[in-house]
């Protein structure tokens, strides 16, 4: 009986105060939620109505999400929240991204747009984070916006500048791992960098790891130290960038997964010496999927007639896509060699490694007069000659 009386009273309030919400669609669901959920003790029915109405109408939350958020947030005035929403939209946040941000951090609506949020958003824009990427990352990791600009952003940025001097690289760190910004300073990154320096790892390699895999740098100190020890024990030279590439494998791959990948390579024809040689040259070959390993080894061995041991001498070629890079290039090379337009001794793997612009010039554009269809064949728009 109590729920029924409460529901009737709430229905009258909703009919008066809900803005732009059809009474025959949202209101019944609204009442159903109110009759089955307990509001925070310091909420008046008016506060609850306004908060949930604002979250659904102005912020685009579903009714269910609005109820969940309303347990952590009370909106009594539109002024502050409207300013926050306007600021987020100015920086390119879509309605869906704003909704995601609110479900993860409802308190953002109570932040000061000008003094608290704007300096942080402007910081990311000033160092070159693309607007779309900024909105995406911050809607997924909004807790970064809770950090103090003076006590966190400024010292963290200055520290990173000492490791990766360009803003472009700092942007790369942020885009690759926003968690490195939320959990990296001052807890973990400095201590892990100290471990690398103690092993004699050069600053260039440290910068490479920070940019390419910042998530490694926020591992717990004991786990990070174990990865460094293992890389040293297996013979990776600390003075070479391959050392930090090995850390990426040990840090993000379990022992059982690593053994499984090695077994896949054995089944594709690698001996133990091939495995060791390939791993020491290019440890990231162990991070490739089983499907990619098999497809690329099959192409290189059965179509190009390379020996597995030859592939082990240049294992980085396995990184490339067979269908998007290696096979189209092989078709072009095969045509050029058949017509005497390319030296037979030229290594096909070196041509796979060649930057796209260089390959187009040397292997296609330089032969346009003799073979004008070559570019279309390369792009797959026409079939190669038999």
Tags for this model:
single chain, 386 residues, 65% helix, globular, mainly alpha, 23 helices
From the N-terminal CA to the C-terminal CA, the straight-line distance is: 84 Å
Shape: globular
Class by SSE composition: mainly alpha
Return residue spans where pLDDT drops below 50 for at least 5 consecutive residues.
1-28, 33-37, 39-44
**Average pLDDT score:** 87
Order of helices and strands: HHHHHHHHHHHHHHHHHHHHHHH
Instruction: Specify Rg, calculated over alpha carbons.
Output: 29 Å
Tell me the major beta sheet.
none
Number of strands: 0
Which percent range describes the beta-strand content? under 5%
SS element count, helices: 23
Estimate percent helicity. 55-70%
Brief summary of the model shown:
The protein has 386 residues and is an all-alpha fold. It is built from 23 helices and no strands.
Structure write-up:
- The protein has 386 residues and is mainly α.
- The chain has 23 helices and no strands.
- The longest helix is centred in the last third of the chain and has 17 residues, at 322-338.
- It is globular and about 80 Å long.
- The chain starts with a helix and ends in a 7-residue tail after the last helix.
Task: Describe the SSE topology.
Elements: H1 2-17, H2 26-36, H3 45-57, H4 63-70, H5 78-90, H6 95-104, H7 113-126, H8 131-140, H9 149-163, H10 167-176, H11 178-183, H12 189-198, H13 203-212, H14 221-233, H15 242-252, H16 255-267, H17 272-281, H18 290-303, H19 308-313, H20 322-338, H21 348-353, H22 356-363, H23 374-379
Helix pairs in contact: 1-2, 1-3, 3-4, 5-7, 6-8, 12-14, 13-15, 14-15
């Amino acid at each position: 009986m109590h729920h029924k009386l409460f529901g009737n009273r709430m229905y009258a309030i909703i009919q008066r105060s809900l803005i732009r919400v059809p009474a025959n669609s949202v209101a019944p669901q609204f009442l159903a939620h109110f009759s089955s959920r307990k509001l925070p003790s310091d909420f008046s029915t008016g506060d609850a109505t306004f908060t949930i109405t604002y979250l659904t109408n102005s912020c685009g939350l579903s009714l269910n999400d609005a109820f969940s958020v309303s347990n952590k947030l009370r909106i009594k005035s539109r002024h502050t929240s409207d300013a926050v929403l306007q600021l987020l939209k100015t920086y390119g946040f879509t309605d869906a991204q704003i909704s995601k941000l609110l479900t993860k951090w409802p308190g953002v609506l109570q932040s000061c747009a000008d003094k608290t949020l704007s300096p942080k958003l402007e910081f990311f824009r000033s160092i070159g984070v693309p607007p779309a990427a900024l909105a995406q990352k911050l809607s997924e990791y909004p807790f970064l916006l809770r950090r103090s600009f003076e006590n966190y952003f400024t010292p963290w940025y200055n520290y990173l500048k000492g490791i990766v001097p360009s803003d472009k690289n700092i942007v790369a760190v942020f885009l690759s791992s926003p968690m490195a910004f939320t959990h990296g300073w001052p807890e973990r990154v400095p201590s892990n960098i100290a471990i690398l320096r103690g092993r004699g790892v050069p600053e260039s390699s440290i910068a490479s790891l920070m940019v390419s895999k910042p998530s490694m740098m926020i591992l717990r100190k004991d786990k990070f130290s174990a990865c460094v020890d293992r890389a040293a024990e297996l013979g990776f030279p600390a003075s070479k960038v391959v050392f930090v590439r090995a850390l990426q494998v040990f840090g993000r791959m379990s022992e059982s997964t690593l053994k499984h990948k090695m077994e896949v390579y054995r089944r594709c024809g690698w001996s133990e010496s091939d495995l060791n040689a390939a791993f020491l040259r290019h440890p990231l070959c162990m991070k490739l999927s089983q499907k990619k390993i098999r497809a690329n080894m099959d192409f290189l061995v059965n179509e190009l007639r390379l020996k597995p041991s030859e592939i082990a001498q240049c294992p980085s070629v396995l990184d490339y896509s067979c269908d998007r890079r290696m096979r189209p290039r092989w078709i072009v090379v095969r045509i050029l060699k058949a017509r005497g337009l390319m030296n037979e001794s030229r290594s096909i793997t070196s041509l796979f490694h060649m930057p796209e612009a260089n390959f187009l010039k040397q292997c296609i554009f330089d032969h346009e007069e003799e073979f004008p269809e070559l570019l279309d064949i390369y792009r797959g728009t026409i079939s190669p000659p038999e």
